[in-house]
Amino acid sequence: MKKVLSINSGSSSLKISLFAMPLEKRLAKIMVDYSAEAKQLVTIKLPQKSLVAEHYTEKATPVELALKLLKKYQVIAADQEIAAVGHRIVAGGELFHQSTEITPGMLRKLESINELAPLHNPANVAGIRDAQQLLPNCPQIAVFDTAFHTDLPPENFLYALPMEYYRKYKVRKYGAHGTSHRFVAQQAATMLHRPLNELKLITLHLGSGASMTAIKNGKSCDTSMGFSPLTGLMMSTRSGDVDPSILVYLLKHHAFANMDECMRILNQRSGLLGVSEASSDMREIEREAEIDPQAALAVKMFVKRICDYIGSYWLELGGADALVFTGGIGENDSHLRELVSQRLQCLGVEFQSAQNQRRDLPFDFATAASRARLLVIPTDEELMIARDAYKLITAKQLI
């Protein structure tokens, strides 16, 4: 048995899980919220124990805090027990097509493409450097969200721009959330008792960030996020698809001062928050929707854009064996799932409203006669990271 640490670094939080591999037993799950400057909220969940929350005011990095907690609660006795560390990286561009060991040269290449995910990659790199310093003799593995989408056909990843921009600047669709889409696709195959390489799936990762992927025979053939994680579906604070002429128009009319402010608005003030003008949290928006027309409009727009992509991917795949809901909204919001499912009846997709209310994930809420199964599957990006890290270091005999 080897202990593998999975690190999922974000711009204001960090998720860490420690697994016993290859048993895939989660020994601890830690969340570090360092959005507040004065203190860090750290929660740790251990098997068969209640969630523990602690506040730290000391100046320590999130990974350092996590290691202290693992020792404090006797999950590990020493850092040396950790055999490998896997890191989630949002954007690998065209440089990285699969999970890989992190070396100094690889890290320099990774930093050269920070622009592809400016809200995420710098935080991912910071997490890597932190772990390298704290665990200097431990193999570090990068697991890329974009890697799952590297097999997209050119007609699906290219933009209708001069080809020079692709050749010179590598402007293309890269997608994101690939670690999550890949995980739930594998879980869907298990639930359906069919090989993944025989399935046609539409996976819906619906959370603060939201994306959808068309998966055929185990491979991503199209995905909603594009050159960056900004485009595609509308999200909590991100705009999703927008006519670029709008941005030029608004810039000319001084709606924002410069392109940096424009990107801040598109990333942080748009989406559900921008339309509802009330909240970026779908739970709050749905509560307000009963009395607030703007909140109701935000929900309708979100549902419509999801269904637009489902229709596109249904044609891309030639039908679907299953739709898979995951992410914070996809897993927990039965009302949203029902609104989406109602619009799919023209495709022969039928759902059971009572079954859709279940809390014991995973489950299928389609009727027996439905042309596609409706699966709700909790994602586990940290487990996917641990699987890749363990597989790679075992193949390379790094442990």
Explain the overall architecture.
There is one protein chain. With 399 residues, the chain is of the alpha/beta class. It has two domains: 2-150, ATPase, nucleotide binding domain (Nucleotidyltransferase, domain 5), CATH 3.30.420.40; 193-376, Nucleotidyltransferase, domain 5 (2-Layer Sandwich). 37% of the residues lie in helices and 21% in strands. The protein contains 14 helices and 14 strands. It has helices at residues 62-72, 104-111, 121-134, 154-157, 163-169, 178-192, 244-252, 259-268, 271-276, 282-288, 293-317, 327-332, 334-342, 381-395; strands at residues 2-9, 13-21, 25-33, 40-45, 52-56, 82-89, 100-101, 140-144, 200-206, 210-216, 219-223, 322-326, 363-364, 373-376. An eight-stranded mixed beta sheet has the order 5-4-3-2-1-6-8-7, sandwiched between helices. Strands 11-10-9-12-14-13 form a six-stranded mixed beta sheet, sandwiched between helices. A hairpin with a 3-residue loop joins strand 9 and strand 10 (210-216). The longest helix is centred in the last third of the chain and has 25 residues, at 293-317. The chain is globular. Catalyzes the formation of acetyl phosphate from acetate and ATP. Can also catalyze the reverse reaction. Its EC number is 2.7.2.1. Mg(2+) binds at residues 8, 381.
**Structural Rg:** 21 Å
- Helix percent reads 25-40%
H/E order of the elements?
A: EEEEEHEEHHEHHHEEEHHHHHEHHEEH
Strand content: 15-25%
End-to-end distance, in Å?
A: 11 Å
Can you say what the CATH homologous superfamily of the largest domain is? ATPase, nucleotide binding domain
Please count the beta strands (DSSP E, at least 2 residues each): 14
Mean pLDDT: 93
| Inertia-based shape | globular
Structural class computed from helices and strand pairing: alpha/beta
Number of helices: 14
- Going by CATH, the architecture of the largest domain would be 2-Layer Sandwich
Number of domains: 2
Poorly predicted parts: none
Assign the CATH class of the largest domain.
Answer: Alpha Beta
CATH topology of the largest domain: Nucleotidyltransferase, domain 5
Sequence of strands across the biggest β-sheet: 5-4-3-2-1-6-8-7
Biggest sheet layout: 8 strands, mixed
